[in-house]
Structure formats: structure tokens, C-alpha cells
């Protein structure tokens, strides 16, 4: 696929009220604008139809990857040095058009690649990260289980038993995005020998591995979430993530990807906000555009404030990541705060559009529905609040 000419580097996102875009380098801005242009040209025209049919435009994965933004934080894949602010910005630009598509990309380029980038050996990183960044390999991330969501640190039931140079995996996973078509799935399981969590790369077509699409979802419908069954799945020791020895190592992955969810939530609320502004400017009641009425302006101003505050938090947490001083509570506070503001914002935007706000035709309804999943995954608000609470008080209150 041939990309259209580069967009002008002067384009400013209207929702960026405090001009956080100025923090990007010229090279980063150029790439971010290329992502925006791709999403507007390739994804926006088809997003509603794919969402309504609950299908995933997998064919767009490689063209998106050709923008050169997937895996830009890893030495094995980045063509030039990039900041965490830039990587978050790319997620925001993607979610601003379609939060489902952002999740599809983020599962492979975020969760799966980060697992390999943090936990893989040098050989594993060199084997997997470049083709994943190029869009030749799609990844998935299997942590959540039917009976283990918030308590995965202690409640993981999937087991891994070593016999010689082979591991045998047994158990089940749920809500695993991309799993029905992924080339490789990172599966987290408890070692029966030491009761510690280990990570395994399960390749597509491995006997004993089945993934069944979860039907009847009303949020992130483009994302192909699956129930996974692992029945005596055999994985070579060479496909065990060599740097993962406990759940603490898994938490390192989640700290980074949780930042990404905050940026995704920001993009989701921006998408709803932009659609609501456009609608209220053209919708007339009582002889005037409804954007001219005080009550509508109050909703839009509140939404704008939420966007701006969330922007600031996302940017600062990303900067802390670059500085190497980011802690679990930093990422947890951002995820809890930004997704809560997102939930309020998409509701205000839906309300501003009246009855038309519940249809796909006016741009808000999809963001309104997708926000519920973004609010929940990568740790519920409650769990993230408790991470922050532990940092404040020194006491863990999870149970």
C-alpha cells in the first residue's frame, strides 16, 4: 500500500488546548501526524460498519505498521530514538478515531511486544520484535482467566509443568484480544514446581490450544476477544520468556501498558468531544444551533476541561517513564483518573447530541460504548485506586 504525502507539520489537534504537542520533536510530530492521516483516511470510513458487524479489519494491521510507530521503544525495532510521550501520543491519535482499532494494535504492539521486550532473552527479542513491529506477526496477551481477573497475582489457575526441555500448559484464559487469529500468544501460567508465574510463547496451531470468539459484546466490538483453552499444550523451554520469574516481572509489563490505556482513554474522550462539537454546531433547535445555548456549552466546556486535565496527567506520567522514575502508583493513578474522566466525558457528549447520540451516524455512540471496556481493562478503577492507596498509607488493602 502506498501512503499519501506527508501531512503538514503545522496541524494542531484542536482538543490540545494547552499545546502539549509542542513537547514532541519535529520527527515525532511528523510521525504522529502520519498516524492521524492514516486513521482518518483508512479507518474512520469503515469503523462504524466493522464495529456494527463485530469484525476486525486485520488487513489494515500491516499498512498501519508501515508507519513505523509499532515497537518504537525497543532497540531491536526503533529506527530512531522516541519518547514515551510520543508513543502515548500515537495511541491517542489511534483511539481518537477508533478505540477498538487502538486496542487491536495495542494488544500486539503493546502487551505482547512489551512482554517479549521486558521478559525475553536477547535471542527472543531479536526473533520476535522486528517482525511484530513490521506487521508480519500479530501477537496476543493471555493473562486474565475466567476466575482470575483482579486477583491474577495470586489467583492464576493456569499451570505450567516442566518435563525435560518441554513445558506442559493446562488451564483457561478469557477476554484475550486478537487470540482467534494471532500468530503468537503470550500465556502466563504458574510453575507447578515453585508456584511462580512464568511466561510462554504459544505459536499459532500448537496442539491443545483453542481460541473461541466471545460473542454478544456491546463494547470494543471490533476487538476479537476470545476464550482460550489450554489442554496439554507443549511449549519448548526455548519459548519460555527467560526473564520472567515471578508476577513481579509481569507487573513491570503492566506498568508500561497501563500508561498506554490512559492515552487510549484520552483519545476516546477526544473522539467523542470532537464529534459532539461538530454535531452541536450544525444541529438547530428553536431557530439556532444548539451550540449557542448555555447548557450545551457547559457540557462541552466540562468535557474540554476533562480532556485537558487528562492530557497533562498522561504527558507527565510518560515523562516519568523516560526519566526512569515512574512507579506503579504513578501509572495506576493515571489509569484510574483518566478513565473516570473519560467515562464522564463520553456521557456528556452523548447527552449533548440528544437522541441522535445513541446512533452510529453521529460519531459519539461508538466512543460512548467503547469507553466501558477501556474503563475496566488493565486494572479496574478500584484496583488502581488501591495501588495508589498503598503508596499513600503504606498499607495494602486489596483483600
UniProtKB/TrEMBL annotation:
PROSITE patterns: ACYL_COA_DH_2. Belongs to the acyl-CoA dehydrogenase family. Pfam families: Acyl-CoA_dh_1 (PF00441), Acyl-CoA_dh_M (PF02770), Acyl-CoA_dh_N (PF02771). This is Glutaryl-CoA dehydrogenase. GO terms for biological process: fatty acid beta-oxidation. It comes from the Bacteria. It is an enzyme of class 1 (oxidoreductase). Its cofactor is FAD. Residues 34-136 form the Acyl-CoA dehydrogenase/oxidase N-terminal domain. PANTHER family: ACYL-COA DEHYDROGENASE, ACYL-COENZYME A OXIDASE. Residues 250-392 form the Acyl-CoA dehydrogenase/oxidase C-terminal domain. Its EC number is 1.3.8.6. Residues 140-233 form the Acyl-CoA oxidase/dehydrogenase middle domain. Keywords: FAD, Flavoprotein, Oxidoreductase. It comes from Promicromonospora sukumoe. GO terms for molecular function: flavin adenine dinucleotide binding; glutaryl-CoA dehydrogenase activity. SUPFAM superfamilies: Acyl-CoA dehydrogenase C-terminal domain-like, Acyl-CoA dehydrogenase NM domain-like.
Amino acid at each position: 500500500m502506498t501512503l499519501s504525502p506527508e501531512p503538514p507539520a503545522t496541524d494542531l489537534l484542536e482538543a490540545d488546548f494547552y499545546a502539549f504537542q509542542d513537547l514532541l520533536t519535529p520527527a515525532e510530530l511528523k510521525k504522529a501526524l502520519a498516524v492521524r492521516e492514516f486513521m482518518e483516511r483508512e479507518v474512520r470510513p469503515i469503523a462504524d460498519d466493522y464495529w456494527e458487524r463485530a469484525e476486525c479489519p486485520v488487513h489494515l494491521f500491516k499498512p498501519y505498521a508501515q508507519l513505523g510507530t509499532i515497537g518504537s521503544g525497543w532497540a531491536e525495532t526503533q529506527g530512531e530514538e522516541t519518547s514515551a510521550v510520543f508513543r502515548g501520543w500515537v495511541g491517542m491519535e489511534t483511539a481518537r478515531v477508533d478505540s477498538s482499532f487502538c486496542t487491536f494494535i495495542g494488544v500486539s504492539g503493546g502487551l505482547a511486544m512489551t512482554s517479549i521486550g521486558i521478559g525475553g532473552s536477547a535471542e527472543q527479542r531479536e526473533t520476535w520484535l522486528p517482525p511484530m513491529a513490521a506487521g508480519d506477526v500479530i501477537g496476543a496477551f493471555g493473562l486474565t482467566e475466567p476466575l482470575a481477573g483482579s486477583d491474577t497475582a495470586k489467583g492464576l489457575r493456569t499451570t505450567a509443568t516442566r518435563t525435560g526441555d518441554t513445558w506442559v500448559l493446562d488451564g483457561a484464559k478469557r477476554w484475550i484480544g486478537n487470540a482467534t487469529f494471532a500468530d503468537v500468544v503470550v500465556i502466563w501460567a504458574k510453575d507447578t514446581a515453585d508456584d511462580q508465574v512464568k511466561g510462554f510463547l504459544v505459536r499459532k496451531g500448537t496442539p491443545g490450544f483453542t481460541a473461541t470468539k466471545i460473542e454478544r459484546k456491546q463494547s470494543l466490538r471490533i476487538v476479537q476477544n476470545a476464550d482460550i483453552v489450554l489442554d496439554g499444550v507443549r511449549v519448548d523451554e526455548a519459548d519460555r520468556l527467560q526473564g520472567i520469574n515471578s508476577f513481579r516481572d509481569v507487573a513491570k509489563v503492566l506498568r508500561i501498558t497501563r500508561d498506554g490505556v490512559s492515552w487510549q482513554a484520552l483519545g476516546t474522550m477526544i473522539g467523542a468531544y470532537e464529534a459532539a462539537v461538530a454535531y452541536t454546531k450544525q444541529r438547530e433547535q428553536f431557530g439556532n444551533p444548539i451550540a449557542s445555548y448555555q447548557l450545551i456549552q457547559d457540557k462541552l466546556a466540562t468535557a474540554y476541561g476533562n480532556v485537558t486535565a487528562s492530557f497533562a496527567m498522561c504527558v507527565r506520567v510518560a515523562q516519568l517513564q523516560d526519566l526512569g522514575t515512574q512507579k506503579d502508583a504513578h501509572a495506576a493513578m493515571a489509569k484510574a483518573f483518566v478513565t473516570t474522566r473519560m467515562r464522564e466525558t463520553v456521557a456528556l457528549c452523548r447527552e449533548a447530541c440528544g437522541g441522535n447520540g445513541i446512533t452510529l451516524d453521529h460519531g459519539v455512540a461508538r466512543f460512548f460504548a467503547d469507553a466501558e471496556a477501556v474503563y475496566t481493562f488493565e486494572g479496574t478503577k478500584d484496583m488502581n485506586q488501591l495501588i495508589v492507596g498503598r503508596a499513600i498509607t503504606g498499607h495494602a488493602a486489596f483483600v
